Backbone:
């Protein structure tokens, strides 16, 4: 039978993948074949974000999210919802009134409650767990000064978790963020988890987004954070795993200077030099082994996209840039470290 990553992983943790609309609608048949064969959990890359679901107050657009959830049900997948409260991709109307002034705390609470309970309630019993709040803590451990924070202070986070729980008491609830290896953020998130628990609110796990590069994060610090979250009494999930394979020459390039970048035009060759590809596979394998080592606290590892051509990392700073960050390549083939795991397993 065809080799399968999810079979290699077995019951260590869920093997997840983020789907875009072309995939969850079934249009991208090659990617869908990979998803069915190798993964047992899916998360919506974009179609469940606030700007997509409620672009105008009271105007809900559920078509793409419904198809995403149905894809999961039809294929026996664990379905994950992303994300209920996020400062980014938030429609302009959410936190301001018609004059563009910040709405009152009462008004914002009511809007959060309506959004969260309409979305979570619709998928009650179908979505296993939700990224309730995304990216609310910054590197030094303090709260991101988002509109949510400006208007409601720290309260917006427990409120979001409370509203989600009321709408689906059986759903798992998560806090999700990036750069979770950074000590300041790690401590801030631990503090947040403890405060939610002290309030008697449900929080099942912390999502470590896992957006990586060839020289970050420090695997030791990443592991320390995994253990710190577990000791705060929650499970750990790697929610958005990918690793840029920046050719070394470009690693130092100031990629924010798109003029210089444009001079290099498409800085990513059609194929990576072997040396870079081997280094990339080695580092990815190291992290996968770290997740397996801590399978007692890791409940899910999710890749942020199916193949290299689907990755958001191709988008910045200029569209069309090629990167090689995911578990399957542009020819829908498994990367070396994945193939090796499957070969080893079938040899046993
Ligand atoms: O759907 C529109 C399309 O109609 C329009 O023609 C096109 C061109 O403007 O834009 C399309 O929307 C884009 C959307 O992706 C779907 O492709 C948005 O512009 C673009 O900003 C959006 O980017 C997503 C980004 O989040 C912002 O929502 C990326 O795909 C997605 O990978 C990325 O994922 C985030 C996680 O949600 C949270 N953690 C960080 C991660 C990376 O930024």
Residues:
């Amino acid at each position: 039978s065809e080799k399968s990553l999810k079979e290699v992983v077995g019951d260590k943790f869920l093997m997840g993948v983020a789907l875009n609309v072309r995939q969850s609608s079934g249009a991208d048949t090659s990617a869908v074949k990979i998803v069915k064969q190798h993964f047992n959990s899916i998360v919506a890359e974009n179609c469940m974000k606030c700007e997509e679901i409620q672009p105008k107050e009271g105007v809900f657009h559920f078509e793409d999210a419904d198809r995403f959830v149905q894809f999961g049900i039809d294929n026996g997948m664990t379905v994950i919802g992303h994300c209920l409260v996020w400062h980014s991709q938030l429609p302009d109307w959410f936190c301001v009134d018609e004059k563009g002034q910040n709405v009152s705390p009462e008004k914002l609470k009511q809007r959060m409650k309506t959004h969260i309970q309409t979305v979570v309630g619709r998928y009650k019993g179908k979505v296993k767990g939700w990224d309730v709040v995304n990216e609310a803590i910054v590197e030094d451990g303090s709260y991101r000064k988002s509109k949510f924070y400006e208007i409601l202070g720290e309260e917006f986070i427990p409120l979001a978790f409370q509203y989600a729980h009321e709408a689906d008491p059986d759903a798992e609830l998560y806090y999700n963020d990036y750069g979770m290896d950074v000590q300041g953020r790690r401590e801030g998130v631990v503090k947040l988890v403890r405060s939610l628990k002290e309030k008697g609110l449900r929080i099942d796990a912390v999502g470590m987004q896992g957006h990586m590069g060839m020289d970050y994060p420090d695997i030791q610090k990443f592991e320390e954070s995994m253990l710190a979250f577990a000791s705060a009494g929650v499970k750990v999930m790697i929610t958005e795993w990918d690793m840029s394979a920046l050719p070394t020459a470009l690693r130092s390039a100031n990629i924010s200077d798109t003029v210089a970048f444009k001079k290099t035009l498409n800085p990513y060759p059609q194929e990576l030099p072997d040396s870079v590809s081997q280094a990339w596979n080695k580092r990815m394998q190291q992290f996968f082994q770290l997740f397996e080592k801590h399978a007692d606290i890791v409940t899910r590892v999710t890749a942020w996209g199916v193949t290299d051509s689907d990755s958001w990392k191709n988008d910045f700073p200029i569209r069309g840039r090629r990167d090689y960050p995911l578990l399957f390549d542009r020819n829908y083939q498994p990367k070396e470290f994945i193939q090796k795991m499957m070969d080893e397993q079938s040899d046993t």
User: Anything to note?
Assistant: The radius of gyration is 20 Å.
